[in-house]
Predict the 3D structure of the following.
Amino acid sequence: MTSSLLFNVTTLAYMASMIVFFAFIASKNKSLGTAGSVIAYSGLIIQTVAIALRWKESYDLGVGHAPLSNLYESVVFFSWTIILIFAFIDIKYRYRVVGAFVVPFALLGMAWAQLGLNNGIEPLVPALQSNWLLYHVITCFLGYAAFAVACGISIMYLIKATNEEGASTVSAGGIMAMFPPIKVLDDLNYRAIMIGFPLLTLGIITGAAWANYAWGTYWSWDPKETWSLIVWFVYAAFLHARFTRGWVGKRAAWLSIIGFAATIFCYLGVNLFLSGLHSYGK
Amino acid sequence: MATTKRNFVHIIWDSFCSLKLTIFLLISLALSSIIGTVLPQGQLPPEYLAQISPVKLQIYAKLGFFDMYHSWWFIALLYIFSLNLISCSIKRLPHVIKFITEPTLVLGESMRSTFSLKKEIRLSAPVDVSQEKLAAFLGKEFATPVISEHSGEYHLFAQKSAWSRLGVYVVHLSILVIFVGAIIGSLFGYKGFVTIVEGSSISSVESRSGNQIPLGFELRCDQFSVTFYNTGAPKEFKSILTVLENGQPIKDYTNARVVVNDPLTYKGITFYQSSYGQEMGKMYTGLQVAKDPGVWVVWLGCTMMIIGIFVAFFMSHKRVWIIVSKGHARMYANASKNQAAFQMQFENLSELLNNLKI
């Protein structure tokens, strides 16, 4: 399959992008930062082609469906959305160093998918034969990806904030000088979550609509549903925390990291450790 | 005595209005919800005893952990959450509405210094001529201004999407609407299950609580079939169903095809393909049955939530003032959100103003 070759190229591109971003941090050479982004974008384009190709290949096999139906396909799609959201923030705000903290998430996903997961194209079981699959999965994963980006930015925030507290005299020109100011990081974190929260909300609602259409209940407190609601609660708390004194800054960054941990548990943990309706990941 | 009482009421009211309570509730809901995902819900005691000790079973049962999302304390949390939502909105909404309907038309000296977006131009025309031209300019490039005269100066005020400040309250209301929909569903609807052997019909279904609920019509299973892919995975579960009233098949509901993800609805009752089996050489189909008159209220709430979030996150209330005095005019502006994006718009407006040459 050509698509699987292209997915390998994508994985290598994200790895190269990450290494170049690390070199950028170490050397502070601006052209390396640009190169890191360009490599990540190339990876994104190759991956887009690969996903489209896999879609077509499923039709060639006579089981045609969007490549969003099993764990392998969802992990690949998750990586794609992470880089997509990163590209959006990178082009809009131009803080190249963010790439060093976000691209690794996408690389991790692709490496896991390519090395550890079954990449066979399988026909859709009856439960997944619905157009809702497309709307539900796309909105959820775009949301997850925005939270991944927010988590990367929050980690940067904590590193920078801790560093500034420790050093009474700001060492000009250190690696920390490459990081955006903490105020900017705090703002970027907020903006990434402002992208993710509406998408997660849409993801939960499309899921509820689908569940109602397929089973007659829009909410059944299944572990996956409940965890998505937990994630929603955490980010809702984050959004309200911004208007409350004493909750901005470090605590908000921690909430964002906890939110992403809950997101990952919702995505993978529920399938691996708990039983329920979303058993595609087994 | 009276004052202590009032203070007490005040303290309660203030704590219900506080954002700290909101954050506490959201985090409590998130944490407590975990219990029901780790502990299987709604099983029978023997099934639990295979995994936990009898003492734990008793404690968990007392705490309602086996049907956690319907336990008194979880429902209480949701009620407190609703109260918090309502009181926060009641406290803040009047201010916001006043802010929208009674905007600051005249910008006082002290307020002017608080703006980061400002611009000054020289004017050679007399004040009332400039005022008219600037009003026309603002109307064309931004929004039609309200003009007030104040101690020899003209104050032009224009605003855009003032109502976007209401977005967050639409989101709050949407949560309550969804709750109302859920309550309607639980009071006037039911969930049930029924099996129908091929060739036979039923006229009632068993609800989750074990009651027999009459449908008011009959449902016949004409045929049930399963098909498989080459890999052995199931491809389609299909029931052919017919609705009968007084023994007569209903047109459009005769030989209706019901598969997973494509249910059949008749008179507000929906039948979902759910399971199948064999009994004495004959196939039977298992159908999930649901009647939920509250579901449209829930979808209304969801739609409101999406619209509300969109407005609250991505739209901002933009305001521009131009103060016209003898010889010069000063423009001030701000936005309720996304100041950076509005700054570009303001710079654009400033440049147009500069080229105006009054």
User: Anything to note?
Assistant: Chain B has a mean pLDDT of 90. The two ends of chain B are 67 Å apart (CA to CA). The first helix of chain B runs from residue 2 to 16. DSSP finds ten helices and 14 strands in chain B.
